[in-house]
Amino acid sequence: MRFSYFLAAAGLAGLACSTGGTGPADTSAPLLAITAPLDQAQVSGQVSIDVVATDDIGVDKVRFQVDGTELAVVYTAPYHAIWNTASVTNNTHHTITATAYDVAKNSNTVNIGVTVSRGTQ
Predict the structure, then answer these.
(1) Do residues 8 and 16 lie in contact, with contact meaning Cβ atoms separated by under 8 Å?
(2) CA 27 to CA 106: how far, in whole Å?
(3) Are residues 53 and 62 in contact, defined by beta-carbon separation less than 8 angstroms?
(4) CA–CA distance, 25 with 5 (Å, rounded to integer)
(5) CA 98 – CA 79 distance, rounded (Å)
(6) Given CA atoms 68, 74, 77, 79 in this order, what sign does their dihedral have?
(7) Tens digit of pLDDT for each residue in 41-79?
(8) Sheet holding 46-54, edge to edge
(9) What percent of the chain has pLDDT over 90?
């Protein structure tokens, strides 16, 4: 749908401004990277998960998951979540997933693997 607004302010009468319209569709997915923890890291306690996400139009949200279970959805940068590993079995491998969505609902996903390691127990 196309909307037009006519500006009637002094000196601007007769000019038109349009939104919506026929510009090119956003088909580019966001770029993202998990910057912490590192892939194949040993983690324990409160694990900070940091993601950098960019898009040519705008990032709408970043979804964080651990082993396929949603951990958090963050709508503004910095994209950060905390994973509490206190109830996780020691010496087990887990997959951290981040998915970034742009305002056109294009998405991109990255995964890393980590091992929960609390030392000798």
Answers:
(1) no
(2) 7
(3) yes
(4) 22
(5) 10
(6) negative
(7) 999 999 999 999 999 999 999 999 999 999 999 999 999
(8) 31-36, 46-54, 79-84
(9) 74
How many Cβ atoms from other residues are within 10 Å of residue 10's Cβ?
Answer: 6
Cβ proximity of 100 and 108 under 8 Å: yes
Q: How many CA atoms lie within 13 A of 110 on its CB side?
A: 19
Pick the CATH number of 24-116 from 3.30.200.20, 2.60.40.10, 3.20.20.150, 3.30.450.40: 2.60.40.10
Q: Residue 77 carries which DSSP code?
A: S
The pTM of this model reads 0.79
- Is 73 in contact with 56 (CB distance < 8 Å)? no
CB burial of residue 84 (10 Å; 0-12, 13-18, 19+): exposed
Nearest CA-CA partner of 54 in 120, 112, 113, 101:
101
Which tokens in the block code for residue 95?
């997959």
pLDDT at position 23? 62
What pairs with residue 20 in β-bridges? 2
DSSP 93: E
